[in-house]
Specification:
The chain is mainly α. Helix content is 47%, strand content 1%. Keywords: Cyclin.
Amino acid sequence: MSREVVRERPRPPPPAVAAEELQWIFSEEELLLAPSIVDGMSPQEERTLRKKGVNFIFQVGIMLKLPQTTLSTAAVFFNRYLMRNSLKVSPGYKPLHHYQIAATTLFLATKVEENCRKMKELVVACVRVALKDPNKLVDEQTKDFWKWRDTIQFNEDVILESLCFDLSVEPPFKIMYEMLKYYGLEHNKRLRNASWAFLSDSCLTPLCLLFTSRTIAAASLYAGARLADVELPNEDGKPWWEIQYVKLRDVRKACNMMVDLYNPIQGTSENAAIYVNLKSPDVIDMSFQTPQSLENGAPAPPRSEENVVPSTEIMDVDSKPVPEAATKPNEILNGERNSVAPDDGSEEGELDG
């Protein structure tokens, strides 16, 4: 005789965890006051550099076979760091390159999520992604290995200080899967893949600075349900969003921001690059004082343009393919379909210090 499975109602997030997460939640007006924008960088360029940094994290993570939760945590650290530090060069201030920040936040995330990788493996992956050569031979005998290794180790304390040593992040992937299990939809492949794709691509946006992890998870589930033609049921006269302790206004707002990720900018052709005119500096300046240089008793010498060797192309990690489940985002909310404009912008730089 089979027993009826009794579902446990979702519990609200612990007050201490919710209060801690709210410390890193900003309004859209506050995002326009990020240090880089205040220093003169355009909001569009600042958003582009955020996207490029997260793409770098994803490419390195894929090469290291890291789980999505670790990559999501690294993306959160990356975005939080940029709310307290600028990417704009100013007199007396030399910012870190967004690839340096991305590599260091990924190193921190592997520790926080307990998915550690050897330093050598991480450095090799960073060099191969940065140099756009997945088969490049990298070992302790190459200069790029030591420069990236010193970069990560030297900047780890810098990132930690900027994050106020607040490393508690609740990945939305786990929350969304618990929501699927609550409604008995975890075996619905179409819904599960669509929701996962929306949630994964949301890491390319600053959603983690605007909404809580639970809201982002609910928005991804809602978008996936609309795509898969699945209706989330109400219970005891309460709508599904109240059962999951989220606000419908925030869920819809988050869904609209996800859809904007796939929409081309108005005034551009379907095949034109969205950020074609926005490029990073031609040189990645790695001439900071590293532990290795300090051991020699003298700071690293400043770079001279005369000594710069011909630049080496950095891997274009911004041409991220759009998942199949997310190719029709406008059908979800608007009933229409727009084509996705590929991001063909590339960077050039050089790693010689």
